Structure formats: structure tokens, C-alpha cells
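Continuing the series of single-chain predictions for the mutant panel. This is the parent chain; the variants come on the following pages.
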Amino acid sequence: PNMLKYLGNKSIPFDIDELVKTIDVNKVAFINDASENMKTKNPVSIAPFSRHIFKEDLPQDIIDFIEDMGFTEYGCNLLIQQTGECSPNHFDLFLYQRNEIHKNTTKEDYYRYFIFLNDRTIGQFYHIGNKQLDWKTGDMYYQDCKEYHGAGNISSETRYTIIIDSLKSLHPFDYQKVVV
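Parent structure:
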């Protein structure tokens, strides 16, 4: 299965530590899929421990960066994981996209991309299925959201990741032709 594809390293045109200082961190939202997973009685649920800043509250530099890659209609957020924060094993439901952006869609209608904004340090992790990543700043991946995945940070540094959700009909990358 093609659960994860490396899409190359992108040059990050901003300093994320400086950019985050311009964001009102009190506007961060927590993962809302946890209650949905609980309703379906999944054996693995998500805890709301990671901070997400959604598209409408992101600095223009991040929006420009995403659109310069060819994304036109998309959802996105900046995932911020401070020391001790995590997203336990889960799969994505795309509730925000399905309920707010493109009604009458299902999770199968979406692709997910993510870009790491800082180098991985000891104590930071991201895994999907049985694969754990070792990333560098700018590494971009496609992720099959049918697979359980999780991430966390017990390092002394904040972990930043841009997450982009695109309808399959609107995605700018043909992930199937990319070789890991």
C-alpha cells in the first residue's frame, strides 16, 4: 500500500519561530476528531493535545508558500507541538473540510500533505503504520489517511508542521508517480 510518499524537500521562505510570534496563540484550536472516534468505539482514540492554527488565522507568508506550490482550493493548518504534546494513534476524518468547506464529501475524497518546518530532534516523532520518519526542514510527504498515524514531542524544542488537505480532484501533485 502507498500509505506514505516522500515528495521532496521544499525551501521554506520564512523563519517559523519569528512567524509564530505574529500569531495570536489564544486562537489555536484543538483536534475535534477525538469525540468522533469515541462515538465509533474505535480501539484507539485521539486526545486533544496538539495545537492547530487553521487557514483563516495563518500568516500570509504560509498561505503564499502553499499557493506557490500549486494548491488552489485547500484546507490547511499549522500544527504546533510544544514539549509534552502529542497526537496519539488515529486516522483523519476531515471533519472541518467535510462540514465547513466542501459539504457532501467523505474522507475518501481528500489527499493529505504535510511539510515539516524544522529538523527532527531526539524526542520528536511521527509515524504511520509501522514506519517512523526522520525528517529535515522542508521535507514534504503525501499521506494515505486510511492508515493509523500519530506524532508527538518530548524534546526541548517546539515541532512545527504544515498540514494541507486537498480534494483529490484539485491536488497539484501526482503522488502515485513519486518513489519513496
